[in-house]
Specification:
Blueprint: E1 13-18, E2 29-35, E3 41-48, E4 54-57, E5 63-68, E6 74-81, E7 84-92, E8 98-103, E9 109-114, E10 120-124, E11 136-138, E12 155-160, E13 166-170, E14 175-180, E15 184-185, E16 191-192, E17 199-205, E18 208-213, E19 218-223, E20 228-233, E21 242-248, E22 254-260, E23 264-271, E24 274-282, E25 288-294, E26 297-302, E27 307-314, E28 317-326, E29 330-335
Antiparallel strand pairs: 1-2, 1-29, 2-3, 4-5, 5-6, 6-7, 8-9, 9-10, 10-11, 12-13, 13-14, 14-15, 14-16, 17-18, 18-19, 19-20, 21-22, 22-23, 23-24, 25-26, 26-27, 27-28
Length: 354
């Protein structure tokens, strides 16, 4: 007699980033929510910040990093404490309107994608996890066929792939820019994708790259040599779609895509370069900007309805639960383990750049 599979472990805590009144939103900054056994969310704490539209956590230290998506871009560091995030440092992002950031596998570099001017900034981190004041800056040029969205470069996501190679999508130039470990430009240069596709987010799995195109509404599949191996619509609704985030299920069997317009989350079965649609589920709100998987739950930041919704994953397929949390203009959700007490950095700095 076979035993039932144990339920995947949940973190039980969620850090939510979003837009604030000074960045055309209504959110408070960072919101920390707790989830009970049924997935019901409740607010535990909040921390003021200027448009923290994307948030990540340090893998070993109790630190959170957030972009401050404003014209004069910023990066903020918070101590992740039991009573809520505490500001530790804030410094310029090296470009305008930053929208994403990532840590390299050794947590030695913090990389920021500045959407406004396409600049990529790399901050060297100290042993305490705090960034140095002067980043390496990589300025770019280029554009695409869409005159409204591709008038210039727009760095959108930073992802460290196999071998620690950094990949940065450029929605404005239809490129994926690459950097070797140590933040050296890749000798092969950037990868050119389909004109007008507008690459936004991407993920690597099993020898393939899966790229969500914000402008063409598709998921494109590329092999390790960046040759296109497949392409499918991100949504089957027939509505105009601007895909947002893309992510893998923990077991690697399914690929999920957020669809802004249809307001859904699509699920595909993965078979190498072949993607087979298996479900398209309402996101529980309007304009699903980002989502994150936490055990057997999928949390969706619905930017235009001011809600974070909870979907249940059953056999890899998202299903509505009816659970939502009211948060002003949420744009990012980060599952995070319970915060420890008394081990966070103590010095508070505010660096000013040139």
């Amino acid at each position: 007699m076979s035993r039932p599979m144990p339920r995947p472990t949940r973190s039980g805590r969620l850090v939510i980033g979003g837009y604030t009144p000074d960045t055309d939103g209504s959110g408070p900054g960072l919101t920390v929510a707790g989830a009970d056994a049924g997935g019901h969310l409740s607010v535990l704490a909040q921390a003021a910040a200027s448009g923290p539209s994307f948030v990540i956590g340090h893998p070993r230290l109790p630190l959170l990093y957030a972009v401050l998506e404003r014209d004069e871009g910023g990066v903020a560091v918070f101590a992740d404490e039991a009573d809520g995030p505490r500001p530790v440092a804030e410094l310029p992002s090296g470009g305008s309107s930053p929208c994403h950031l990532a840590l390299d596998p050794e947590a030695a570099w913090l990389v920021v994608a500045n959407y406004g001017d396409g600049t990529v900034a790399a901050f060297r981190l100290g042993p305490d996890g705090l960034p140095g004041p002067e980043p390496l800056l990589f300025r770019h040029e280029g554009g695409g066929p869409d005159p409204e969205r591709q008038e210039g470069p727009h760095a959108h996501q930073a992802v460290f792939g196999p071998g620690g190679v950094l990949h940065v999508t450029d929605l404005g130039a239809d490129l994926v820019r690459r950097f070797l470990p140590g933040m050296r430009p890749h000798p092969g240069g950037p990868v050119r994708l389909a004109p007008g596709s507008g690459p936004r987010h991407l993920v690597h799995h099993g020898g393939h790259w899966y790229v969500a195109g914000e402008l063409d509404g598709c998921v494109a599949v590329y092999d390790e040599g960046w040759r296109e191996a497949g392409r499918v619509p991100a949504s089957g609704s027939g509505e105009r779609n601007h895909p947002s985030h893309i992510a893998l299920s923990p077991d690697g069997r399914h690929l999920y895509v957020g669809n802004r317009g249809p307001d859904t989350v699509s699920a595909f079965e993965i078979d190498g370069p072949r993607l087979t649609p298996v479900a398209e589920t309402p996101s529980g709100g309007s304009w699903p900007r980002h989502f994150a998987i936490d055990g057997d739950l999928l949390y969706v930041a619905n930017q235009r309805s001011d809600t974070v919704s909870v979907l249940a994953l059953k056999d890899g397929v998202p299903q509505p639960t009816g659970e939502t949390l009211r948060v002003g203009t949420p744009s990012c959700v980060l599952p995070r383990p319970a915060a420890p007490r008394g081990v966070s950095p103590t010095r508070t700095t505010r660096s000013s750049g040139r």
